[in-house]
Specification:
By secondary structure, the protein is of the alpha/beta class. Helix content is about 25%, strand content about 25%.
Length: about 250
């Protein structure tokens, strides 16, 4: 099953969609913004395959923000929302809107104990292990052996794990080993056109291509400016807290 994926960004003029890629763990938008309706042509309405909406504001800012969920509706398909979940409270908020499945970076969770609590809330939560230089990205930017990380998640009872290859550094042999040991893992190439070998996975994420490239078109157009801050709930120094989070990139 192919799951089309698009980036959604909230700004003063509303929500727009775009192609995108990852620079290590940081999302980068490519190309001009498009209306939300542009995703409808990418939906497999006959089979009702899900669509993954990657929340650019949350993933870039590294905190949970509900703006995208308030404004995006997908007709004819279930919606998988990729956002930034740190605690069980964030997950409850995500499911209070219209997400059928919530995907979040593994390294976003505060600890494996918290991640286990999050998964206990709903098995419709899917952690995403980012890959950089052939290794899995853990908390605080540490790199670990991918299979060791997947073993740890499977020991916790997590069966659906997305493997997001941000720099396409996993070899065909490594993908085959992952598929053989973890067939329910969901591969996710880090950019449009990224190719992951057909190795027997039950499902895979396929970033959507909205534009047709010509020889004169640069492969990576200028990036979209960072999103505005979402209003941060909680303490009076919340904005300072969010700024500190932006500075803790691995």
């Amino acid at each position: 099953m192919d799951i089309p994926a698009v980036f959604a960004r909230f700004a003063d003029d509303g929500v727009t969609l775009s192609e995108g890629h990852f620079k290590r763990t940081v999302p980068v938008l490519d190309g001009p913004p498009l209306p939300v309706s542009a995703v409808s042509e990418k939906i497999d309405k006959e089979n009702r395959n899900p669509v993954l909406i990657a929340d650019y504001n949350s993933l870039y800012g590294r905190y949970f923000c509900e703006k995208i969920m308030k404004h995006v509706r997908v007709r004819g398909a279930s919606m998988w929302l990729m956002t930034y979940i740190e605690t069980t409270e964030d997950l409850f908020d995500a499911f209070n809107y219209n997400a059928d499945v919530v995907v979040s970076p593994y390294h976003a969770s505060e600890s494996d104990a918290v991640l286990r609590d999050v998964y206990d809330v709903s098995d419709s939560f899917i952690p995403a292990v980012y890959i950089y230089r052939g290794k899995g990205v853990s908390r605080k930017g540490k790199l670990e052996d991918l299979r060791r990380m997947l073993d740890r998640l499977y020991d916790m009872g997590v069966r659906r794990v997305s493997v997001l290859d941000t720099d396409m550094s996993l070899s065909e042999e490594e993908w085959a080993a992952v598929a053989d040991r973890y067939p329910t893992a969901i591969p996710f190439p880090g950019w449009v056109g990224g190719i992951i070998p057909e190795t027997g996975f039950e499902a895979r994420v396929v970033p959507v291509r909205f534009r047709r490239y010509s020889p004169r078109t640069p492969r990576r157009p200028p990036r979209t400016p960072p999103p505005p801050f979402c209003r941060f709930r909680g303490t009076p120094d919340a904005r300072a807290t969010s700024c500190r989070r932006l500075s803790r990139r691995p």
